[in-house]
Amino acid sequence: VNWTDHGTIFGQSSFEWGHTWCFRAWAAQAVERDGKYYLYVPILRKGATEEADSPGYGIGVAVADNPYGPYEDAIGKPLIEGDWNDIDPTVYIDDDGQAYLYFGNPELRYVKLNDDMVSNDKSVGVVKQKMTAEAFGEGTGDRSCSYAEGPWFYKRNDLYYMVYPAFGKTGGENISYSTSTSPTGPWTYGGVVLAPNNCYTIHPGVIDYKGHSY
User: pTM (2 decimals)?
Assistant: First the structure.
């Protein structure tokens, strides 16, 4: 309940490859490894336009010595630079030390991060998940499933969880979840955590503390 304001810890302007007219960094997640803190954040890339084949978004990674920064661009370029789908990163380091970066709107994707946390396994590349009703709930309209964006990936009691905003049939977004016995899927839809509230971008995060999940 007691919070301390540490000011701005990082911004899009800290990425030289970010678009100059849209200084916006959002939907970030930080994770600690070997005493360093790595912040993953989607950024509008230079040269981006409204055209479908323009650069679009990229996922950058910044590093700091403590969780509240200051953070600095770790590699001087996007870690992920594919298309307009590449937003909303979520990171989890598994028990065997393998780190996974999931992301995506409206399609869920992942890469396996290398031990340095600032590069990914190119032999695996970007893997696209099967976006089915069985995996992520029944879709609305022309959507194959309910998954929307903003995933949060973590593990609890040997089960992997994907918690995410989903498009509800009554309008707005709800928070839903899917589970898997493997960090790379396949996923099984689990249901709604929080019912629709007629709002959007309800990006979730989950933490376990003293035997409870929040």
Answer: 0.93
